[in-house]
Each structure stands twice: as C-alpha cells, then as structure tokens.
Amino acid sequence: FDILKMAEEEEVSAPAGIADSSPRDALAEGILGLLKPAVDEMDARVAGVRDSQQELRSYIDTLAEELKQLSSMQAIPVDLDPYTKKLANARRRVAMVVSLMQTVQERLTRIQQNVAKETARRKALAAVQPS
Description:
The chain is mainly alpha-helical. 82% of the residues lie in helices and 0% in strands. The chain has helices at 2-9, 23-73, 81-128. Helix 2 (23-73) packs antiparallel against helix 3. The radius of gyration is 26 Å and the shape is rod-shaped.
C-alpha cells in the first residue's frame, strides 16, 4: 500500500496505452504485466509436471502387473514381494505428487482468473472516468 501511496503522490508517466489512467492504475497495470507471464509460465510447468507424474504412475502400474505375472509363472519361486512393495510405495508417492500438482494448478488457475477480472474491472473503471 505504501507503493501505491507513493505512486499517487508522485507524477508517474504511464506506459503506452494507459495515458488516461491514474498513477495508481498505471502501477497496477505494470505489476499485472510483470506477474501474468510468470503465472502463465508456472501454470504451463505445473501442467507438464502433472502430465509426467501421471505417465510415471501408469508405467509403475504396468511394471507392477508384469512383476505379478512373472512371479506367478516362475517354476522356482523368486521372492518379488519386496520389489512389488517398493513399486506400490512409489506409486503412492507419485499419486500424492499428482494430487499436490493438481492443487497447485487449480490455485494458479484461480490467480489467473482473478488477474483477468481485476484487469477488466480496472479497464472498465478507466474507460468510465473522465480525463
């Protein structure tokens, strides 16, 4: 809030396209312009990680199933139980990461929506205010 007060007190030159808005609006637009690309990039990376985690989970499921089949086909019993337990544990951890990544992506989506709403609101206010 101190930054906004300082911007209102000082004469700040607005970026191109924001010439009619107040210094406070110009500052808000500038901050928004800085944050939006970072949020977009973060959202894309979270989506990529989530997709990779789901793919890994699928591979772990396939491997666990193949180990079960191999174990049942062996004439000489080989104790694969520790390995299947490790795979099950890894699958559980991957599922937890997928869940966490989904939560993060939902938060980023809400932030993007809020930023878009705030931008539209500020543009509407700037259009209504007389110069």
